[in-house]
């Protein structure tokens, strides 16, 4: 009897040892290979078996053991692994990897991301597109000036009107394409598809102001033109509505806006490139608000305005200022008279805080 008890105890100990050992092995095999979160691209081709997928994952150092991956998948009756391109990391572990593979992948290694910064103009838009796709700058600008294409867009979007086709406007869609980051499936994307996404986003941004436009004596073109100037003149979101207020005050007094950014746009010179000459500032042009446009906005927008600048154009700060100037530290000073403005400019220059391009 004592011998039997000893045998049974030995068997129980053996079973317990096997269970503990098996559990330890199981937990190890199912665990992440490492704490490394660096993503690895894995392409699961159509027709690959569970064994082949396990071997691929082991080769990529994403699972400990291909055979265990296969056994785990069979044990838990995994059948829904989908073909596709995945980004997996060594810190995921078998359970999480299988869950991702069952869900399917939205990752596309051929996708392109187009980043259009706030304040960029159409020439900049063309450069971004040409740099990241198979479309040339010339093709982008040509499409933006295609009258047949514009007629189609005018019918489709409530905020686009015939005014964008008037003679003298450089790029009809300037100011109407919303600056943001957009994803596309490949470099073979069409210009129309890019513009469609940007116009759709602008529609979302402008729709809350639609009723205001309908009852206002200003057109949507006016509001976007103002927003595009505020975008380039503004220094931080907290000054935009105040700057818009200054510009509306000047328009109300039949003054010119006196905005340098409009002169640069008129001459198709980027502000960071160089300073303009006195003669250039005094060049008559439907975009140049330094001369000849007293009480008027430029013929059209000069940049792609942000949501904040658009809001400022619709909801300007009500103030009595007629002038403003910014220093190189992004401080903006508002004044009511030209004499005060000149004093502030002289003060900024004396401190060495004047902005030099």
Explain what you see:
This protein has 357 residues and is mainly α. The chain is built from 15 helices and six strands. Strands 1-2 form a two-stranded antiparallel ribbon. Strands 3-4 form a two-stranded antiparallel ribbon. Strand 5 and strand 6 (332-335) form a beta hairpin. The protein starts with a helix and ends in a 6-residue tail after the last helix.
Please outline the helices and strands:
Blueprint: H1 2-30, E1 40-44, H2 50-59, H3 66-75, E2 84-88, H4 94-103, E3 112-115, H5 122-132, H6 137-144, H7 147-156, E4 181-184, H8 191-206, H9 210-215, H10 220-233, H11 237-252, H12 260-266, H13 278-281, H14 307-314, E5 323-326, E6 332-335, H15 338-351
Antiparallel strand pairs: 1-2, 3-4, 5-6
Nutshell version of this structure?
With 357 residues, the chain is mainly alpha-helical. 48% of the residues lie in helices and 7% in strands. Strand 5 (323-326) and strand 6 form a beta hairpin.
């Amino acid at each position: 009897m004592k011998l039997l008890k000893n045998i049974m105890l030995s068997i129980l100990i053996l079973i317990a040892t096997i269970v503990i050992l098996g559990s330890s092995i199981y937990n190890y095999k199912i665990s992440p290979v490492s704490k490394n979160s660096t993503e690895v691209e894995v392409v699961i081709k159509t027709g690959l078996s569970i064994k082949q997928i396990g071997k691929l994952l082991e080769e990529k150092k994403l699972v400990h053991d291909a055979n265990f991956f296969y056994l785990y998948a069979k044990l838990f009756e995994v059948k829904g692994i989908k073909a596709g391109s995945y980004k997996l990391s060594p810190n995921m572990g078998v359970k999480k990897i299988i869950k991702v593979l069952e869900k399917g992948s939205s990752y596309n290694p051929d996708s392109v991301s187009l980043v259009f910064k706030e304040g960029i103009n159409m020439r900049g838009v063309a450069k971004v597109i040409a740099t990241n796709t198979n479309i040339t700058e010339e093709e982008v600008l040509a499409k933006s000036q295609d009258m047949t294409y514009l007629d189609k867009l005018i019918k489709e979007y409530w905020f686009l009107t015939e005014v964008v086709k008037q003679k003298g406007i450089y790029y009809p869609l300037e100011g109407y394409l919303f600056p943001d980051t957009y994803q596309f499936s490949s470099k073979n994307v069409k210009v129309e598809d890019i513009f469609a996404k940007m116009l759709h986003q602008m529609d979302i941004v402008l729709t809350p102001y639609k009723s205001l436009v309908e009852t206002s004596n200003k057109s949507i073109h006016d509001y976007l033109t103002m927003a595009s100037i505020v975008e380039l003149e503004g220094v931080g979101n907290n000054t935009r509505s105040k700057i818009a207020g200054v510009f509306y005050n000047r328009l109300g007094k039949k003054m010119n806006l006196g905005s340098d950014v409009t002169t640069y746009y008129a001459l198709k010179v980027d502000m960071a490139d160089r300073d303009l000459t006195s003669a250039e500032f005094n060049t008559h042009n439907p975009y140049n608000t330094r001369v000849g446009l007293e009480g008027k906005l430029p013929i059209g927008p000069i940049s792609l305005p942000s949501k904040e600048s658009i809001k400022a154009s619709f909801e300007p700060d009500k103030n009595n200022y007629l002038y403003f100037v910014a220093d190189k530290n992004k401080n903006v000073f508002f004044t009511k008279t030209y004499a005060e403005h000149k004093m502030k400019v002289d003060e900024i220059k004396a401190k060495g805080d004047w902005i030099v391009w």
